[in-house]
TrEMBL record:
The keyword tRNA-binding does not apply. It is an enzyme of class 4 (lyase). The gene is hemB. This is Delta-aminolevulinic acid dehydratase. Pathway: Porphyrin-containing compound metabolism; protoporphyrin-IX biosynthesis; coproporphyrinogen-III from 5-aminolevulinate: step 1/4. It catalyses: 2 5-aminolevulinate = porphobilinogen + 2 H2O + H(+). Keywords: Heme biosynthesis, Lyase, Magnesium, Metal-binding, Porphyrin biosynthesis. 5-aminolevulinate 1 binds at R193, R204. Homooctamer. 5-aminolevulinate 2 binds at S261, Y300.
Amino acid sequence: MRDLVAETHVHPRQLILPVFVADGLSEPRPIASLPGIVQHSLDSLVREAERVVTAGLGGIMVFGVPRKEDKDPRGSAAWADDGILNRALAAIRDAVGDDTVIMADTCLDEFTSHGHCGVLDPCGNVDNDETLPLYARMALSQARSGAHVVAPSGMMDGQVALIRDTLDRHGFTSTAIMAYSAKYASGFFGPFRDAVGCSLRGDRRTYQQDPRNSREGLREAELDIAEGADFVMVKPAGYYLDVLTRVAEISPVPVCAYQVSGEYAMIEAAAANGWLERERVIDESITSIVRAGADQVLTYWALEAAQRIGV
């Protein structure tokens, strides 16, 4: 009877698996702050993509982790043909083709020596306009490598418009853009920065949004939609459900939410201490994000949850 009258249903096809691939690895390397999650080698990443297909997930989002010596102030390894992220996208596309949606994180923070999401000016601030052409170059390289979706996550003003124009001019009119539109300067990103070996000094409060603001997130989503975004995203998910609901109410395009590394790590840590029912809380957390308005959810539990949710 409960299933008959349930208002919210989550399906595997709504779930997207974020994955990390690190240059130079011959086997997966565990991430201490994300128990159960690894930095993949190219071979293990392909196997993970095949599991995504088998599980019927909606897609796979790939984050590249370059070697420290390949980082520079502009993040040039991000668009290099032989860069780890582009090689990973090509390997997945060769292995699974169009059997799942291949998504690429389009941001410089993993690739810059200073760990910020853009080029720094002489005062150490991110230069929005100087950064935009690099995002366009990165997105184009990802489309050429096999990405179905590019996902600009740096919160630079105008990033969606320039990426859309660049992709279209080079014939990638079918490559979609998932815009990280309402991305907040959150304390819940800590484990992620371990996962990608981020070199960040300082913080990102000058270009990510203030956690105290809701209307700002709505406005950013509206701007990205006007610039041509095919999806908009709210990040983090669980602590910004009010923003997610407001964005979903006005958005003419699908709305995604990212259940971030800190949300994952907290539940895993509490479950490891026996303080909560792990599987029940995982499923409840994902259901709450969909109930709040998300059409898709990026979650590190995607493969596991697909076995239980929406079956």
